[in-house]
Amino acid sequence: MGSVFANLLTDYMFHRIEDITPEFLRELGVRGLIIDIDNTLMRWEEHEAPPSVREWLRAASDAGFKIVLLSNGLRSKQARVAGDLDLQVVAGWLPKPLPSGFRSAMRVLGLPPSQVASIGDIVFTDIWGANRLGIITILVEPRSSRDFLGTRIWRLLERLFRLRRAKKTDPK
Ligand SMILES: [Mg+2]
User: Which neighbouring-strand residues pair with 139?
Assistant: First the structure.
């Protein structure tokens, strides 16, 4: 298996972000989270996270995890969601999977890649970009079948190359 292909596969997979427990993250040595917004925290067509996600974010903060948001979505929505959830959103010069946003996020978290997990719903942005920097990757199922037009191409490629599968099942 070539390294490009290996970088396309996520380390771990969960159905929803709410299914990822603090214990699981702690066992991996994770201390900081870079979290995607659209279809990870809320449905693409919605602007507010559901109560279950709010509760999960609160529990993660209480457990001591540092959290930043990193999204390729509309800046106006990013700002609104960050304000609403009282979280910091990081802006990259260029969209994911390019490294600038992930690097900014790690600077804000003040953590090395081995202590950071990227959580998102798209292999080609949230997972590929993070894998290349040595960040731990966690893929979740999209919360909605609706998405940005460009994302539909990613979805097609994910299916075509059977990329929605994890390299690992247990921590480490
Ligand atoms: Mg997304």
Answer: 13, 120
Distance 38 CA to ligand 1 centre (A): 4
Q: Would you call 1 exposed, middle or buried from its count of C-beta atoms within 10 A (0-12, 13-18, 19+)?
A: exposed
Q: What is the mean pLDDT of residues 9-19?
A: 97
Q: How far is the CA of 2 from the centre of ligand 1 (A)?
A: 26
Domains and CATH numbers, the chain: 3-160 (3.40.50.1000)
Chain segment 54-93, per-residue pLDDT in tens: 999 999 999 999 999 999 999 999 999 999 999 999 987 7
Ligand 1 midpoint to CA 111 (Å): 23
Distance 140 CA to ligand 1 centre (A): 9
